[in-house]
Amino acid sequence: MPARTHDLPTRTRDSSSQCFPANNPGETFWQTTQHKLHDHRSTEQLPEHSDIVIVGAGYAGVSTAYHLVKDHGDVNKSIAILEARGACSGATGRNGGHARPDFYGHIPTYVDRAGARAGAEIAEFEINNLRALKKIIEQEKIDCDFTLTRSIDVWCNAEAAEKAKCVYDRMVAEGFEYMDDVVFYNGDNVEGICGVKGAKACASFTAGTMWPYKFIMHLVELIVDAGVNLQTNTPVTSVTADPEGGFIVETPRGKMHAGKVVYANNAYVSGVLPQYKKNIVPCKGICCRITVPDGVTAPLLNNSYINRTEDNVLSYLIPRADGSIVVGGAAAVFRKHEDQWYDNVDDSILIDSAKDYYNDYMQKTYSGWEDTGAKIDKIWSGVMGYSYDSNPHIGNVPGGNDQYILAGFNGHGMPVIWLSSKELAKMIIQDIPFEQTSMPRLFQTSQFRIDRALNGKTEDGDILGSGKFPATKP
Ligand SMILES: Cc1cc2nc3c(=O)[nH]c(=O)nc-3n(C[C@H](O)[C@H](O)[C@H](O)COP(=O)(O)OP(=O)(O)OC[C@H]3O[C@@H](n4cnc5c(N)ncnc54)[C@H](O)[C@@H]3O)c2cc1C
C-alpha cells in the first residue's frame, strides 16, 4: 500500500495541547528498509464495528493482537488495530534492541518501596519474558537477529561501583533465586573482563538483543493474515461510550464502533485517556548506530552492555553481527535541558544537547577501538512513556468497563511487553481480573496510582520519581 499522511490534532505538546505522535518521525537504522505492511490498511474504509479495537501498532498493540488471535482464536472475535503513523513507527521501531532484565536499576528500588516479593516478582517476570521471547522467535521462525547473550553492567566511577556491590550483596542476601545468574566482579581484573577502559566493577547476567522492527513486523504479517484489520495512519482522536453499548472510536477518517478498547499507545496514552496525563509522560531518548570503515576489523564485543562513565552517564549498548554497534542513553547529558526531552513528542528532531555525545564513544570507551575510525552511521530520537512511579500501567482502565490499558514502559518495554500482552489478552477474553494473571502486582493500573500522580505524593507523603526523573533510564 502507498504511504499515506494523516492529520493529527497537534505536532508537539505544550500544557494546553493534547498528546499525539508527531507527523514526521526522523529516520532510524532499524526502519531503513520499510516492511511491505508498514503503511498497510486491510480495508479501504474503517470497519463499522470490531469486537476489540486496539489503539497503537507498536510492541504492545501488535503482541496483544497476536495473543488474542493465537491463544484465543477459537473465541472468534473481530479485531482492529488503529495506528496513528506507520506500523511499529513508535518507540519499538526506534529503540536500542536490548531485551535485558534489570536487576540493578529498578528492582532494588521496588524492593525498598513495596517489599522483597513485589520487587522480585518483576525480576522473575522479566526473566520469564526473555525465555518466552526466545521460544516464540524460534517457534514462528522470526528473522530478527535475536541473540541470547550475557549483558555486562559496568561502573567506571569508584563510589558508584562500591554502591553497586552493596546492592548486589543485598539482593543476594534477600535469597532471590534469580541472583544465581548474576556474577559481580571488582578488583584489578575488571577492565580485562569487560573491555571497558577505567572500569571499576562489572556484573554479568543473561539478556537478549534483537531487531525489534523486524520482530514486530513479522507478527504484523501473521495477524493480518489471520484476519486482524490493520489501519495505519489513522490516529484515534477520542473514544466515547455509546449509549447503545460499546464505544464510538473517532479518527480523522471517520468513526467506528468497538465492543472493547485496548489502549496500547504508550507515551501518547493521555491523548485519548486524559486522566493519565500526570501518570504517563512522553519523554524523548536518543540512540545511534556506529560502524567502522570498510576493511577495518574492530575488536569483537561478545556481550551487550550498560556502561556508566566516571561521571555517571549511562549508555545501553548492543553489538550486532554485522560488526556495528547500537548505543543510546546519555540522559545525564541532556537531563537539565527539559524543553528538549520532557513532555515532548517530537521525534522528528534529535536531542540537541546530546546529539554529539556518541561521536567518538567506542574509541573513548573500549580497549582496542582507538584507531578503528568508528563513527556514527545513523542517529535518531524516540519517545518513551515515563510513568510516575516507574511501573507500567496494565489492566482495566479504572471506571471504564471493557477498556484496557497496556502502556508506560519507562524505556524498558522489551523485557516485559511480551508476557504482559499475553496476560492482558487473557483478561480481555476470559473477563478475569488482573489478580488472576501472572503479571507483577506493581504493574496493575488503579485509581490509586492515578490519584497519587495527580497529587504528586506517595502513601507516606514523599514525592516519588514525579515521573520526571524516574528510577529507570531514558
Ligand atoms: C531511543 C529509545 C531507546 C530505547 N531502548 C530500549 C531498549 O534498549 N530496551 C528496552 O527494553 N526498551 C527500550 N526502549 C523502550 C521501548 O522501545 C518501549 O518500552 C516499547 O517499545 C514500548 O512499546 P509500545 O508498543 O508500548 O509503544 P510504541 O512502540 O511507542 O507504540 C505505540 C504506538 O501507538 C501509536 N499511537 C499513539 N497514539 C495513538 C493514537 N491516538 N491513535 C493511534 N495510534 C497511536 C504510536 O504511533 C505508536 O506506534 C527505548 C525507547 C527509545 C525511544
From TrEMBL:
One of its GO terms (cellular component) is cytoplasm. Residues 1-14 have a biased composition (Basic and acidic residues). Residues 51-427 form the FAD dependent oxidoreductase domain. InterPro entries: FAD-dep_OxRdtase, FAD/NAD-bd_sf. It comes from the Eukaryota. Residues 1-24 are annotated as: Disordered. Residues 15-24 have a biased composition (Polar residues). This is FAD dependent oxidoreductase domain-containing protein. The lineage of its organism: Eukaryota, Fungi, Dikarya, Ascomycota, Pezizomycotina.
